[in-house]
Write a structure and sequence with these properties.
- The chain is mainly α and about 100 residues long.
- It has a single domain, classed as 23S rRNA-intervening sequence (de novo design (two linked rop proteins)).
- Helix 1 packs antiparallel against helix 2 and helix 2 packs antiparallel against helix 3.
């Protein structure tokens, strides 16, 4: 990242958003209820989506010398987004009463 005010801001924002998914996942594992589990994972999902935005900005501006290096990070972030999203959907479906034909 460039040693500029903008570079520092983006780096700080990405650091905050990118590192929050792990502790939110940990909090979800220790959830007190299905609703709490969904809430904690939803926060993690929100932070992952924010991380994706910052990575896209870094790649598209570009803010680094080799913007292609962001590709693997974006792919990993996309995979985590899908995992969190699916986990939330599964938990929601388990909470819903099953519908009999």
């Amino acid at each position: 990242m460039p040693a500029t005010r903008a570079g520092a801001h983006v780096a700080d924002q990405l650091l905050r958003a990118g590192t929050s998914a792990l502790p939110n996942h940990g909090e979800a594992q220790a959830a007190e209820s299905p609703a709490d589990f969904i809430h904690k994972l939803s926060i993690g999902l929100k932070e992952l989506r924010e991380s994706r935005r910052w990575l896209l900005l870094i790649q598209r501006v570009p803010l680094i010398r080799e913007p292609d290096q962001v590709g693997p990070l974006l792919a990993e972030t996309e995979e985590l987004i899908r995992i969190f999203y699916r986990s939330i959907q599964t938990a929601r479906n388990r909470r819903s009463p099953s519908k009999l034909p």
